[in-house]
Amino acid sequence: MRKPIKGFSKLSKLDKIEWIAATYFTDADSAKQAITQYWNTDQKLQQLHDEFIENTITNYYLPFGVAPNFLINGKLYTIPMAIEESSVVAAASKAAKFWLDRGGFKTEVISTTKIGQVHFMYNGDFDKLRKFFKTVKPKLFEDSQHITKSMKKRGGGILDIKLINKTEALEDYYQLHATFETLDAMGANFINSCLEQFAKTFKSEALHFDDFLEAESHIQIVMSILSNYVPDCLVKVEVSCPVKDLSEDHSIAPHDFAQKFVQAVKIAEIEPYRAVTHNKGIMNGIDAVVLATGNDFRAVEAGVHAYASRQGAYSSLSHAEIVDDVFRFWMEIPLALGTVGGLTNLHPLVKVALEMLDHPTAKELMQIVAAAGLAQNFAALRSLTTTGIQEGHMKMHLMNMLNQQNATAQEKETIVAHFKNNTVTHSAVEAALSNLRMMRNN
Ligand SMILES: CC(C)(COP(=O)([O-])OP(=O)([O-])OC[C@H]1O[C@@H](n2cnc3c(N)ncnc32)[C@H](O)[C@@H]1OP(=O)([O-])[O-])[C@@H](O)C(=O)NCCC(=O)NCCSC(=O)C[C@@](C)(O)CC(=O)[O-]
Ligand SMILES: NC(=O)C1=CN([C@@H]2O[C@H](COP(=O)(O)OP(=O)(O)OC[C@H]3O[C@@H](n4cnc5c(N)ncnc54)[C@H](O)[C@@H]3O)[C@@H](O)[C@H]2O)C=CC1
């Protein structure tokens, strides 16, 4: 029977590994070897990674790939992508190359407002609370000046604070609902610091507000936190071209392709089962760039999916139409991103990614990330509505399958050549490899 451990966090990295290896693995030495082989030989670099999180025992590598040829508002980018799934980078690259000759991606930042809330409980007369809020509002701004000073100088800060009555949904529940402009920062720390200051001022000032009865003056602050739902931090991305220009090969007529493509998008607009997978395809592109640029993909994921449900049912993030023989494919997506703060100035590969993108502002990064998402969606839908997804995906997945079978470099070369003209499936790869090995042994 395994026992819990006390004080694990205080152990050294080596002692943590020793304990894990001894407790959970039948072959403790191999486990230790598997864990420590990913340590970086540069101790300073390793320490930097160790200190990103807590109880770090090793590094977990993700491939860092690039998708070239992204023409966004007339500027050419090579987009860095950190992702484990085969075919995503290839798909983004292929879509970028396709749209390169058709005007590229047109993007526009619609808004950059972020939101934070102080959630509190008040048992009393709402009119008195409203009056108190009006009186205290200037002091909420004033008391947070030590936090907002530099952000204000840069052109950002607190935009507004509102009192919201939520008692119809939950007894005694109110909010201070604040909006912020955080410029090049994702803003979590700035917003949370402001909110905690609002909460402090709000609670203490309530104690001295003359109109409140004794019970009313004791406001209970439940929590102060930014929201990852950012429907007003929105970017738009679009591609379009005459339908006749959609043709690449002659397997499907451009008009038929455009119609089928639009139908596929319409299905995702009205059918949640399909919409989730459709949007997953978009997030293939978005998450990979968000990760490579050191941004918070959980925050982005949560916000994007909430946005996809904003009309009461989960729906497609992207839309398509054919008007006057012009094909148009677009989406609006909420993205709270930073190009300063967080990991952006710390992780050496994030610095590489940001330099590769020409040191973008947060607004520029929103547009680049959105283009990667739309490109991915275009590539997936083109495959789905023409060849089927498996052909391209399995072609890219071939190397993983060969690695699983411990194929040698020479075997890989022969098998890849074989599958240039044959359909890749797990059983076909296994059969081809075993044939090759049998022939060699005879
Ligand atoms: C996979 C491809 C691109 C093959 O497409 P292909 O036509 O066989 O590729 P190709 O060999 O003719 O090359 C054309 C271009 O594709 C790119 N490309 C091609 N191969 C590579 C490679 N090895 N490394 C880097 N880039 C590559 C590259 O840009 C290349 O141009 P070049 O560089 O030669 O000038 C195509 O079939 C495709 O786009 N498929 C879609 C794949 C996809 O969406 N994958 C995501 C995983 S599936 C999923 O999770 C989501 C999904 C699909 O369920 C979402 C949904 O349902 O909506
Ligand atoms: N719910 C959530 O999403 C939460 C996320 N986080 C984490 O917070 C981190 C991001 O927080 P941030 O506050 O963005 O990072 P941060 O606090 O590390 O850096 C941002 C700071 O950089 C400074 N700055 C310098 N130049 C600037 C410019 N041009 N524009 C704007 N600010 C500039 C400002 O002081 C700003 O507050 C992420 O790692 C995220 O994972 C933390 C708590 C909750």
Automatic annotation (TrEMBL):
Record bears the keyword Iron-sulfur: no
UniProt name for this protein: 3-hydroxy-3-methylglutaryl coenzyme A reductase
Pathway note: Metabolic intermediate metabolism; (R)-mevalonate degradation; (S)-3-hydroxy-3-methylglutaryl-CoA from (R)-mevalonate: step 1/1
UniProt family annotation: Belongs to the HMG-CoA reductase family.
Gene Ontology terms, MF aspect: hydroxymethylglutaryl-CoA reductase (NADH) activity; hydroxymethylglutaryl-CoA reductase (NADPH) activity
Keyword NAD: yes
EC number: 1.1.1.88
Reactions the enzyme catalyzes: (R)-mevalonate + 2 NAD(+) + CoA = (3S)-3-hydroxy-3-methylglutaryl-CoA + 2 NADH + 2 H(+)
Pfam families membership: HMG-CoA_red
PROSITE patterns: HMG_COA_REDUCTASE_4 (PS50065)
CDD domains per UniProt: HMG-CoA_reductase_classII (cd00644)
Keywords noted in UniProt: NAD, Oxidoreductase
Species: Gelidibacter salicanalis
One of the GO BP terms on file: coenzyme A metabolic process
